[in-house]
Design brief:
With 243 residues, this protein is mostly helical. The protein has 2 domains: 1-11 and 33-150, no CATH class; 165-243. Helix content is 71%, strand content 0%. The protein is globular. The protein starts with a helix and ends with a helix.
């Protein structure tokens, strides 16, 4: 798998290294620059290269977990640096593809589970979609929150939804609270529950509490009175005081 990742990145780099900014590093007056570049890993060179969103997409749609993670990181980095518009159709299409990575393969062919079930890819994709104000970004995040089997992915999805900073008609706060309630009845993963509480706190800090769905307060109170760890219940009390 690692060999596949390096070969794909190598091909992309062989194309991108013709960019002027990269050629400048190999000039005759850049001895120190050459030495610094030689110390960088292939992954670091990939992130710094001037790749198009199409090149990033080719990494994301691969079946190599390392390549997918590198692609979604590059996408998020370019959005943060203003090189890619996170509200664009292309950005949302690539990030949503990564968000569904592994899950579709599991449902279509269970034998692919060991190689295709990549929650780390979907976690980073959820954070990336949280940067986008595109209407479909919210739809993809909600769908993942409802259907993804991995608690850590659900946690990242809730944070991504909260990061968008809007709660139209209490829709987002409802989805987060509903996911928390479901988790309480299934396995009560404390990591996910804690992040869910954090998402509620973040959402109310930006969107306010006017549209907050009533189920949110009930859910937080349920955690406060539960038998969960002190850390989670203290977080619930903190959030409750802000509602």
């Amino acid at each position: 798998m690692k060999r596949t990742f390096l070969s794909v990145v190598g091909v992309l780099l062989s194309i991108s290294l013709t960019a002027p900014g990269v050629l400048a590093q190999t000039g005759t007056d850049g001895g120190d620059t050459d030495e610094a570049a030689a110390e960088k890993t292939i992954e670091e060179l990939y992130l710094e290269s001037d790749l198009s969103i199409r090149s990033i997409e080719s990494m994301v749609i691969s079946y190599d977990r390392d390549a997918q993670r590198m692609g979604i990181r590059a996408l998020a980095d370019r959005a943060e640096n203003g090189q890619v518009d996170p509200n664009s159709e292309e950005y949302v299409a690539v990030a949503s593809t990564a968000l569904r990575s592994g899950v579709g393969n599991i449902s279509n062919n269970p034998s692919l589970l060991p190689d295709s079930y990549h929650p780390l890819v979907r976690i980073e994709a959820a954070y990336a979609l949280g940067r986008s104000a595109h209407p479909r970004a919210q739809t993809y995040l909600i769908t993942t929150l409802r259907t993804d089997p991995e608690p850590s992915v659900k946690a990242a999805t809730m944070i991504g939804l909260a990061e968008q900073g809007v709660d139209p008609e209490g829709r987002i706060s409802y989805e987060i609270a509903a996911a928390i309630q479901k988790e309480l009845t299934v396995r009560a993963d404390e990591g996910m529950l804690y992040q869910g509480l954090q998402a509620i706190e973040d959402l109310t800090a930006t969107a306010g509490t006017d549209d907050l769905n009533p189920i949110v307060r009930e859910t937080v109170i349920e955690i406060v009175t539960s038998g969960l760890s002190r850390r989670v219940r203290e977080k619930a009390i903190m959030v409750l005081n802000k509602l």
